[in-house]
Amino acid sequence: MRLLLAFIASFLISGPAVAAPGEYTSTSGPGTPCVAIEGSRHVSEVCFHFDLAYDVATLLGEPVVESRLAWTISKVRLKSGTSTGEILARGAQHVDERVREAVNALKLTQGSFAGRLPTGNNPVWLPLKPGAFKASGEGFSFNTPGSPNWAALFLNEEDGCASSRFVPAEQAKAQVKNGVTFTSASICDARFANLGALDKVLEETCTVAPADGKACAPVEKGAGAPKSPLADALKGALKSELNKQQASEDGQTPPAPARAQTAALERAQAKLSPRREAIGGQRERALQTCRNSKPVRPVGGESQTLQLTATPFRDPCRDSGNYRACDAAREQKKRERARRQREEKARREARFRDELAQYEREIAVWPQTLATCERDAEASYRQAVADHQKAVEAEAREIERLERASKDLTKSLSKALRPGSQ
């Protein structure tokens, strides 16, 4: 039956891929949606904007759901702490053209989404699978309508992607009757093709061969080395410090070769790389917390249905034939209930007005609040990176000092063990 409904719906609305009656665009929300990537040697996240077209209708008393999605890749994030840790798909960033082409060649092969309905503090989500995707920037996906059960149409959890609790069938029917619109949408799952080709291009254009397979900075056009990379900054600081130490030793020990300095630096970076990756993860979590703190408009007001708890009432007619007293008691009961309804309605409307006023105050300053939160998160991130750089410098100096001490001890022992030495 449901296959037949889906076929009929597909036949009725077949034609060009146009936007369904409802549409949500990711640019209306804060930031650019990003998806964590697994299995890539150098890419940690792929970020893209999307337009989600959807329609929920009924046919022969059963729900029919249609969804299509158009997406445009924005950037990829690398497993790297350098200044080129993000590669834009387009824009003013100057990177090797092969890298840019490989980024734009990524294909969205699988994806599931969830749209949140404007139900206030009682979250309701509509899960969607928009079908076969087109290439980035080339329009809406191809899909056919589906007909799920009423009892498996909407999800009722705070996280629309991890939910397994469905809205009851009667509530789902009422929601469809009132209309389905989205206030936000989440990416539940996304898989990409051509990540291997991007990894290969990144490895061919790295400024320094990654020691652990996790750090890769693409070469920028017009420069022999990346702009202000961490390695060069640490190498210069280390070289300056070592020269000072050597000058204070009356020239007895020759300066350490550049190769030894680089080896000490790479060993220090490899040793502290887990800490650097943790710093990047903390930054993303802090930024996501900022974006998730957007005020939610309260739901309520005069249209809210009142549900009062019934109180026990014994009909006097059961005990006597005094019908006048019975009628009077019933009228008193009606008046009491009407009074309670008016009072409860007044309380709810007052509470709703207070919540709405609070929401309007918060949403009015939300852009400034978000900017301040993100600015504080970025400042904390930059401070953490600076502290990490100092730690790498100190670790590299200690490695270099131990290596020099080891070489000096080896020379002393060799001299002491020579024939004829006292």
Helical fraction equals: 40-55%
The CA-CA distance between the termini, in Å, is: 102 Å
Largest sheet: 5 strands, antiparallel
The tally of structural domains comes to 2
Looking at the structure, what is the overall shape? Answer: elongated
Order of helices and strands: HEEEEEHEEHEHHHHH
Beta-strand content estimate: 15-25%
Strands, total number: 8
The number of helical runs is: 8
Q: What are the segments in which pLDDT stays under 50 over at least 5 consecutive residues?
A: 4-20, 208-215, 217-235, 249-256, 302-310
Rg, rounded, reads 33 Å
Mean pLDDT: 75
Strand pairing plus helix content: what structural class? alpha+beta
How would you describe this protein?
- This protein has helices spanning 2-13, 97-104, 169-178, 195-204, 230-247, 258-292, 323-364, 366-416, and strands at residues 22-25, 34-36, 43-59, 62-78, 86-88, 107-116, 125-128, 184-193.
- It is α+β, with helices and mostly antiparallel strands and 422 residues long.
- The chain folds into two domains: 2-203, no CATH class; 229-294 and 328-422, no CATH class.
- A hairpin with a 2-residue loop joins strand 3 (43-59) and strand 4 (62-78).
- Helix 2 runs antiparallel to helix 4 (195-204) and helix 5 (230-247) packs across helix 6 (258-292).
- The radius of gyration is 33 Å and the shape is elongated.
